[in-house]
Every structure is written in structure tokens, then in C-alpha cells.
Amino acid sequence: MLWLFAVSGVLGYVNNWIGYLAWGLGFATGIFLGIKIDEKLGLGYQLFQIITHMDVAELLQSLKEEGFSATVLNGEGTRGKVLHISLIVLRTESLRIRYLLGVYAPGAFYTISDVRESNAGVFPQNHRNSILFYVKRLLPLHK
């Protein structure tokens, strides 16, 4: 309804270029704010796929201590033997995983994908999936 109202307002003044500019800026602002809110809330899960030729024993131990579950597969890459590590985490944990990768596997190749659906698996049980947690992420209180 809001979109129809905005477009009809712009089309009512076809010769007024300021209306088109205002509509475009309003549309872009709405998209920008929506993306920022989505990033701040961090709803959903992400799949990390890490490929490395390094020894990752410390990384795997650290992930286990943090409560994450990783699947490790042996593989063959262009440069020889590699390990392929997969783990699914809450989007709010993405920075933590990237930090651990920087500490224990710097230079490792990794990709991050959004997970639309998953079944079963081992996930850490914590407060990070509560409504209050997401409200605090959206409206942080300064100390």
C-alpha cells in the first residue's frame, strides 16, 4: 500500500523531476535501512566452508571448546592434500568464527553462505536465540 501511495504521488506530477528524485532517494534509503537492520539482528544461520592445507588441530579444538560442531573431510586440491571443514552457525556468531580463523588458520580459504533450511545437527544451546537477545542487538544500550 505504501509503495502504491508513493508511486501514485510521483506519477501525479510527471513533469516534476524533483518528485522522481525524492522517490528514488526514499526507495534507496528504505533499502539501506532494511539491510542495516537485517545485519544488526543477524537472524538465521550461516554455513562456513573452510579449505586449507594447514594443520588445523588447534582450530578444531577451539571450535569444540566454544561449542561449535565441525565436519572435517580430507580432499585433494590443485596444490595437494587439503582439509575441508564445514560448520553451520548462527549469523550472530559469524564474527567469532572469522576471528578464530584469523588466529588458528590465517590465510585459509573460506566461504560463507546463508542457510535456508537444515535438519538435525549439533548446535550450541545458549541464550543467543532468544527474543531479548535480538532486541538488545537492535537497540544496544550504552554503558
Keywords summarizing the entry:
single chain, alpha+beta, 143 residues, elongated, four-stranded antiparallel beta sheet, 23% strand
What report would you give on this structure?
This protein has 143 residues and is α+β, with helices and mostly antiparallel strands. The protein is built from five helices and four strands. It has helices at 2-11, 17-41, 57-65, 94-104, 131-138, and strands spanning 45-52, 71-77, 80-90, 109-115. A four-stranded antiparallel sheet has the order 2-3-1-4, with no helix packed on it. The radius of gyration is 22 Å and the shape is elongated. It starts with a helix and ends in a 5-residue tail after the last helix. The model has no long low-confidence stretch (mean pLDDT 83).
What structural class do you assign from the helix and strand content?
Answer: alpha+beta
Total strands: the figure is 4
* Biggest pleated-sheet summary: 4 strands, antiparallel
What share of residues are in beta strands?
15-25%
Shape: elongated
**Number of helices, where a helix is a run of at least 4 consecutive DSSP H or I residues:** 5
Helical percentage? 40-55%
Order of helices and strands: HHEHEEHEH
Rg measurement, Å: 22 Å
In spatial order, strands of the major sheet run 2-3-1-4
Average pLDDT across residues? 83
Unreliable runs, pLDDT <50, ≥5 residues? Answer: none
Ends: how far apart? Answer: 40 Å
